[in-house]
Automatic annotation (TrEMBL):
<dbReference type="GO" id="GO:0051724">
    <property type="term" value="F:NAD transmembrane transporter activity"/>
</dbReference>
<keyword id="KW-0999">Mitochondrion inner membrane</keyword>
<keyword id="KW-0813">Transport</keyword>
<dbReference type="InterPro" id="IPR023395">
    <property type="entry name" value="MCP_dom_sf"/>
</dbReference>
<keyword id="KW-0812">Transmembrane</keyword>
<dbReference type="InterPro" id="IPR052465">
    <property type="entry name" value="Mito_NAD+_Carrier"/>
</dbReference>
<keyword id="KW-0677">Repeat</keyword>
<comment type="similarity">
    <text>Belongs to the mitochondrial carrier (TC 2.A.29) family.</text>
</comment>
<keyword id="KW-0496">Mitochondrion</keyword>
<keyword id="KW-0472">Membrane</keyword>
<feature type="transmembrane region" description="Helical">
    <location>
        <begin position="255"/>
        <end position="278"/>
    </location>
</feature>
<keyword id="KW-1133">Transmembrane helix</keyword>
<dbReference type="GO" id="GO:0005743">
    <property type="term" value="C:mitochondrial inner membrane"/>
</dbReference>
<feature type="repeat" description="Solcar">
    <location>
        <begin position="197"/>
        <end position="284"/>
    </location>
</feature>
<feature type="repeat" description="Solcar">
    <location>
        <begin position="15"/>
        <end position="94"/>
    </location>
</feature>
<protein>
    <submittedName>
        <fullName>Solute carrier family 25 member 53</fullName>
    </submittedName>
</protein>
<dbReference type="InterPro" id="IPR018108">
    <property type="entry name" value="MCP_transmembrane"/>
</dbReference>
Length: 286
């Protein structure tokens, strides 16, 4: 009897990893559907073009290349949910049990999300690097396949190869995770108070939270895309890359936020579904 009691908290503890992975896996279906939208946004971030021009580029390249680079985000999406939700829950439990905790209980989910975001950046920066290289049409000739990209990046130092853009990714992921886990609960409570079902409340909560995060941190995503899209050439630091990006956008926030509306669409679909499925699984097992 004692053994089964000891195992029960461990099983509950591991369920958050399983639920996070399951919810993210199911959300890969809409991720696959909206990948052309994501790729359109990426082209706007790199080439500073309008939606019409970006779509025209993809149309000329043809349907075969349209889904070039889709494998990393699909794999990353599933693993990301497993790690992010599971690790945040693990850290939250540890923080809640700490006898010397001087932080407000309401702030603990955000703090745990911050810690999970750091680990997320360490694990998934290489995935994002490979994805951005594959999506850049300028690399099609000298890096035509996933294997050639992996070999080329492996030949370089980590800071220039797989971990190019690590600092802005860490900033984006830690802030994003903190905001997500800190806001989704309170927003869900407010929405549920309007008489909506728990599933609808979770979906709307995930949608609104991710929408706010995407818009707030969008400049960091643009910076990361520009830093990671090329392999080789002149290497510049984060601040130098930011100055170049800001100058290329004519010091205009409107131009910097090109593609932002499509990011909202993607966030509404993926994170809304992920949050709804995860919360539903957590309540069933609770």
């Amino acid at each position: 009897m004692t053994g089964s009691r000891d195992e029960e908290p461990s099983m509950v503890h591991l369920q958050s990893y399983l639920h996070g992975g399951t919810s993210s896996l199911l959300s890969t279906i809409p991720t696959l559907i909206v990948f052309p939208v994501y790729k359109t946004v990426f082209r706007q971030q790199i080439d500073n073009t309008s939606v019409h021009q970006a779509v025209g580029q993809l149309y000329k390249e043809g349907p075969v290349k349209l889904y070039r680079g889709v494998a990393p985000p699909l794999l990353m999406r599933t693993l990301n949910g497993t790690l992010l939700f599971g690790l945040q829950d693990t850290l939250l439990r540890q923080l809640s049990l700490s006898p010397q905790n001087i932080i407000s209980t309401s702030a603990l989910p955000a703090l745990a999300g911050f810690g999970a975001g750091i680990v997320e950046a360490v694990v998934f920066t290489p995935f994002e690097r490979v994805q951005n290289v594959l999506q850049n049409g300028q690399n099609d000739r000298h890096l035509p396949t996933l294997k050639t990209v992996l070999v080329r990046l492996k030949a370089q130092r980590l800071a220039l190869g797989y971990y190019r853009g690590f600092l802005p990714i860490t900033a984006r992921n830690t802030l994003g995770s903190s905001l997500y886990f800190g806001l989704k609960g309170p927003i869900c409570t407010v929405v549920a108070g309007q008489g909506l079902s728990p599933l609808a409340s979770s979906f709307i909560s995930g949608t609104l939270t991710s929408m706010a995060i995407s818009l707030t941190l969008y400049p960091l995503s643009v910076l990361v895309a520009n830093m990671q899209a090329q392999v080789g050439g002149e290497v510049k630091g984060v601040m130098a890359c930011w100055r170049m990006l800001w100058h290329s956008r004519e010091r205009s926030m409107v131009l910097l936020y090109r593609g932002g509306s499509l990011v909202i669409l993607r966030s509404c679909i993926t994170w809304g579904i992920t949050t709804a499925i995860y919360d539903r699984q957590e309540k069933r097992s609770g």
